[in-house]
Structure formats: structure tokens, C-alpha cells
């Protein structure tokens, strides 16, 4: 069995929630802890967090080799002079 001491403001909020939901304070605390534990154990790795963003914004290039594009721009500049 575990006991928890709550600050008075949280205790008051818990009491009001208990009355509003017609549930015991213990049941509300159990539900909250279950939600927290489910959320914490379902922690995602960095790939899962960012996979929606990968490839979403292009580099603005047309693809291909960066070095070749730079050389082409330099050649174009020198040929136009």
C-alpha cells in the first residue's frame, strides 16, 4: 500500500472532481496513474517522433549531386561574362 501527501490546492481539486464524477478519490488517482504509466511506457524513439516530418520540406534543389550543381553555376557565371 502506498500513501501520498497532496498539497491542499490539489486535494481540493481532487475532492471537487470526486464529487463531480461520483467516484472515490482513490479511483481517480488510480486512473490518473494508469494513464501516466501507459503514456510513459509508450515512449517513442526519435524516428517515431519525427517520421511525419521526414521529406516534408525539400532542400529546394532539383536533386542530383550538389557538387555538380555548384560547378554548373560557376561555369554559367564565367561563360556569361
Average of per-residue pLDDT values: 85
**Low-confidence spans: pLDDT under 50, at least 5 residues?**
none
Described by strand count, sense and barrel closure, the largest sheet is: none
N-to-C terminal Cα separation, in Å? 84 Å
Strand content: under 5%
Shape descriptor reads rod-shaped
The total of helices stands at 4
Succession of helices and strands: HHHH
The class by helix and strand makeup works out as mainly alpha
Q: Specify Rg, calculated over alpha carbons.
A: 29 Å
Number of strands: 0
Note down, in words, how this protein is organized.
This protein has 81 residues and is mostly helical. The chain has a domain at 7-43. The protein contains 4 helices and no strands. The protein has helices at residues 8-21, 25-41, 46-50, 66-80.
Write the layout of secondary structure elements.
Elements: H1 8-21, H2 25-41, H3 46-50, H4 66-80
Brief overview:
This protein has 81 residues and is an all-alpha fold. It has a domain at 7-43.
Amino acid at each position: 500500500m502506498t500513501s501520498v501527501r497532496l498539497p491542499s490546492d490539489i486535494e481540493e481539486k481532487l475532492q471537487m472532481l470526486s464529487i463531480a464524477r461520483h467516484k472515490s478519490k482513490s479511483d481517480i488517482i488510480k486512473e490518473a496513474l494508469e494513464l501516466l504509466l501507459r503514456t510513459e511506457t509508450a515512449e517513442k524513439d526519435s524516428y517515431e517522433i519525427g517520421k511525419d516530418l521526414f521529406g516534408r520540406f525539400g532542400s529546394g534543389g532539383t536533386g542530383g549531386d550538389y557538387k555538380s550543381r555548384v560547378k554548373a553555376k560557376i561555369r554559367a557565371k564565367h561563360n556569361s561574362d
